[in-house]
Predict the 3D structure of the following.
Amino acid sequence: QVQLVESGGGLVQAGGSLRLSCAASGRTFRQYTMGWFRQAPGKEREFVAAINWSSDHIYYAEFVKGRFTISRDNAKVTVYLQMNSLKPEDTAVYYCAAGVRHGQYDYWGQGTQVTVSS
C-alpha cells in the first residue's frame, strides 16, 4: 500500500513557476513508477509526466515538454514536478500517482490546485 500527499500548488501569474511535491509512504516507493496527472474543470484527467524507479525512463505530455521537469528522490520518498513558463491553460488540479509501470497506476493522491492567472 502506498499513500501519496501532494503539496506546492497555488496561484501564480502566467510565465511564473511552481514546484509540486508528492510525498509517499511505504517502503516500496523505490519499486514504483511515479506519475503526475491533471484535471481541469469540465475536462477529463490527463497525463502530464512520469518517471520510473531509477529515473532513466522519463515521459512527458507534448504540451509540457520544455516547460515541466519531473524528478524523484528515493531517499526522501518524494517525486517533484518543476513547472516553468506556466500558462493559464495549465490551471488544474494536479495529482500524483504510483504504479508498477507507466500506464498502470494503482495509487493516487488527493490532488493540489494550480491556478495560473493571465
